[in-house]
Amino acid sequence: MSDETRDRELERLLSAVPAPRARSEFRSSLRERFLAGAASAPEVDVVPDERAPAGQVRAGRGWKPWIALAAAAGIVALLYFTKPAPRYWEVLPGSTASVVRVNGDILPPAETDMIGKALNDARSVSAEGGTLRLAYRDQYAIELPAGARVDFADTYTLAALGPALRVVTGPGFHGQRLHVRSGGANLLVTGTAFAVDNLPEGVCVCGLEGRIAIQQKGHADVPLEGGKQCWFPKDESAPAWGDAHAPHIAPVRELEAAAREHWRP
Amino acid sequence: MRLRQRDRAALETFYQSYFDRVYGYVRRMLGDDAEAEDVTQEVFLNLQRSIDTYDPERPLSPWVFTIATNQVRDHWRARRRVDPLAGASLDDEDARPDPPARDAGPLPALEQAELARTLSAAIDELPESLRTTLVLRTQEGLSFEEIARLISRNETAVRKRYSRALEALRERLARLAADVRGGGAA
Predict the structure, then answer these.
(1) Is A215 a residue whose pLDDT tops 80?
(2) Total domains in the fold of chain A
(3) For the whole prediction, is pTM greater than 0.80?
(4) Of A34, A74, A106, A214, which residue is 20 to 30 A from B171 by alpha carbon distance?
(5) Domain extent at residue A53
(6) What pLDDT does residue A68 have?
């Protein structure tokens, strides 16, 4: 057996070694402390004003430099505000949602530019009355079926709420990692297409292609290959494995086709 | 982004996504539950204090694990001040010569659970610098380049550490397989 083959085999085994788990009391008490800072923390640190040494205080202040400075600042502000906002998020064709909410605010589904801009600094997006397909640059595309919501910690850290979330990574995703949490499952994605379906009895993760590292509370991280399914029961008992569920995979294929068309150079 | 603005929902999602990973990493590096809790707490409070330094255009994981690794290092330094014999430096591993190449043969056919336990114990026994590289690579999925930046080493040194870590693990598994075979024959 070659060194490379042995390394790959060992790496596969290592990725399945369970990580040490914390006490739930510690987890929840630290959570309280961590989140307590959220409301009280100032958005901008306040730096105490320091008195300048006497020798550095200017004796006189002409008004001309101030006018020039104000004019320059005005030009900079004008350029800044008239610059078109970067289009990071875009609504993909095939979206049928009748209501789109970004940060809880309802936006008209036909106003795709408005939705895209609002998503640039969003903490949540949800779809009602139909599906919503979104692409983040050429990095990844997601599909929210009716009733689904996604919360963002940052662009690459999502929580999937509601019935389901379908994800396809794009040509620019290489080297990135996407973190998706749903129910008791944490998914670490390094380049793949998959569906997360939140059912009453548990969470179903179906891989279409690529590889996903899956983590469930109290269980080892496990890789999910394309064409396979991992089932996480709500009672947090051990995950079950099988072949990907066709009805869950079909919408991922459709999303992938729409996203590929969108990303085509 | 919302995380930088310390938005509560964004922090909640962040915490739920990263708590297990950070605790698992810190616990793996320190080998002690109580110390792991202390350091994990410091990491999260530090993350919150430093959140302004995070660039939302870059992946989050390397930033999180840079802070976690620095906190672990600080803890080791403090530990060594108390007990100078405790723990080797993260940095002194590069000075060691490479172990001679050995063909440890195919991995032993152990039961999965037993294998996971054995691997887990073997990881814990690795020198700290090898363990850092191995855990960040295999369990956190960081690239060699990201790990290199994170521990202030060049990428070649990191790849070398990673190879040494795999080699050390293979040797341990081979020893175990020999023990199992020996026990079975007796």
Answers:
(1) no
(2) 2
(3) no
(4) A214
(5) 24-82
(6) 75
Q: Does the distance separating the beta carbons of A33 and B41 come in below 8 Å? A: yes
B150 vs A53, which has greater pLDDT?
B150
Residue A11 falls inside a structural domain: no
- Check B9 against A20: CB less than 8 A apart: no
The helices-and-strands tally (H runs, E runs) of chain A is 5, 15
Specify whether A40 is located in the same domain as A145: no
Do A62 and A188 share a structural domain? Answer: no
- Residue in chain B closest to A41 (alpha carbons) equals B6
Q: Is B13 on the interface with A (CB under 8 A)?
A: yes
Same domain, A162 and A241: yes
CA A120 and chain centroid, separation: 12
Q: Looking at A129-233, which runs of residues are DSSP E strands?
A: 132-136, 140-144, 149-154, 157-161, 164-169, 178-182, 185-199, 202-216, 222-225, 228-233
Among A152-166, A179-193, A223-237, B88-102, the minimum mean pLDDT is found in B88-102
CATH of the domain at A202: 2.60.120.1440
- Contact list in A for residue B45 (CB cut-off 8 A) is 33-34, 37
Give residues with Cβ within 8 angstroms of A53, minimum separation 6: none
Are residues A187 and A211 located together in one domain of the fold?
Answer: yes
Res A85 pLDDT > 70: no
In whole angstroms, give the CA distance from residue A136 to residue B183: 57
pLDDT of residue A188: 76
Of B21, B45, B170, the CB nearest to A6: B170
Question: What number is the average pLDDT over the span B120-148?
Answer: 86
Predicted pLDDT of residue A131: 94
Q: Does B8 touch chain A (CB under 8 A)?
A: yes
B3 contacts in chain A (CB < 8 Å): 153-154
Q: Which of B5, B16, B51, B117 to mutate to test the interface with A (most CBs of A within 10 A)?
A: B16
Cβ neighbours of residue A181 closer than 8 Å, sequence gap 6 or more: A158, A159, A160, A187, B13, B16, B17
In a domain, A71, yes or no: yes
Whether residue A39 is found in the same domain as residue A57: yes
Section B3-19 average pLDDT: 86
For A2-49, what is each residue's pLDDT tens digit? 667 777 777 877 877 777 888 888 998 899 888 887 755 433 333 333
Hey, is A53 helix, strand or coil?
coil
